[in-house]
Task: structure prediction
Amino acid sequence: MNYRHAYHAGNFADVVKHAVLTLILGHLRRKDAPFAVFDVHAGVGRYDLEGEAAGKTLEYVEGVRRFLAEPPPPELSDYVAALRAVNPGSDWRFYPGSPRVARHLLRPQDRLVLVELHPDDVRALRREFAGDAQVAIHQRDAYEALKGLLPPPERRGLVLIDPPFEVKDEFTRAAHGLRQALKRWPTGVYAVWYPIKDRPPVAAFHEVLKGLEAKEVLVAELLVFADDVPARLNGCGLAILNPPWQLDEALRQILPELHRRLRRRGGAVRVEWLVQPA
Ligand code: SAM
Result:
């Protein structure tokens, strides 16, 4: 496990992922009934953009800093509020990871379950959420944890799958994990983040997603470069299984604006049903 998210925190891919996360949670918040969020590749929850790791790559400069260079779009007010919550002063030194973004959107009746394998990150998470009764932290493999934790008693909620993609078969593992999880909790919302370098592995992943036992599968992608240089992270996508109602329309509205702010050379936006609503 070499991957350390601190080098990438706040990059364009984090902006896309966390913006979409806030849109999904915004939909779940529309009903009073409690929901549970399972963030099974949690990272550390909060990143110091003035720290050594972020300073080495400066990826956040092309990500969250570009996003914030213009007045934020009203549709992403929850995302901006989550950014502000870890930066109560006037600057933007800290970046909230997915656990902090999700925690910001919990109501008193909701729960957040964090799963992380790296011992240093688990320690950081325990510090970050010490004394928070709405947050549970497990040091376990993501997919093993889902076997034990699903379905939640709330019967409503989201599973976020955000692996590091440092091993070649990560797409296969994610698809297998999803298949198992859907057997236990067919009605949960699932969001899987994936990198886009070149098309063939992504196209193969999409084919597998079409065969899963999910009623609806939506994909949202944002490329900051054309997807013709396989060695580069050209873009990223989220596959959303059982997406909340009208999430597709919300994404069609907001992704072009994010693309305008984050693009480097070309690229594009795509929002598409892999499995259409009946
Ligand atoms: N979700 C985080 C966010 O948006 O702020 C970033 C997560 S980062 C892309 C991936 C994380 O997964 C790393 O912190 C890594 O240590 C962790 N990880 C890697 N393999 C794992 C596994 N098998 N089970 C659980 N966590 C794992």
